[in-house]
Amino acid sequence: MAMSQMTIDQLDKDQIKSFSDFLLSYNKLSELCFLDCVNEFTGRTVSDKESSCSLNCMEKFLKMNQRVSQRFQEFQMISNENALAAAQKLGGK
Fold it and tell me: Domain Tim10-like spans what residues (predicted)?
């Protein structure tokens, strides 16, 4: 019973961490795109220029984030393969 409670607690912590990371990323995206795209505060509506700028900004941010994640995963796989090869080389001697 205690083991399952620890597992549930860890899952809750992981979910909270994931949600926190998502919110940080969303807030960063919102701040960057707002600062880059919104320049005029005289009207109540969002201009076409601001709207298209914010969409482009969001796309670039998400693509960059995806690309960085892919590169990080590739780097991790290479590191794991190198560590495995080194361990096998040491184990063989």
Answer: 15-74
Query: Which CATH number fits the domain that encloses residue 64?
Result: 1.10.287.810
Structural contact between residues 59 and 37, judged by C-beta atoms closer than 8 angstroms: no
CA separation for the pair 50, 40 (Å, rounded): 9
Are the CB atoms for 65 and 25 separated by under 8 Å? yes
Inside any domain, residue 4:
no
How many beta carbons lie within 10 A of that of residue 37, not counting itself?
Answer: 19
**pLDDT tens digits, residue range 15-60?**
888 889 999 989 999 999 999 999 888 888 999 999 999 999 999 9
CA 28, distance to chain mean position in Å, is: 11
- pTM of the entire predicted model: 0.65
The domain tally of the chain equals: 1
User: Distance of alpha carbon 4 from its chain centroid, rounded?
Assistant: 29
d(CA 47, CA 69): 33
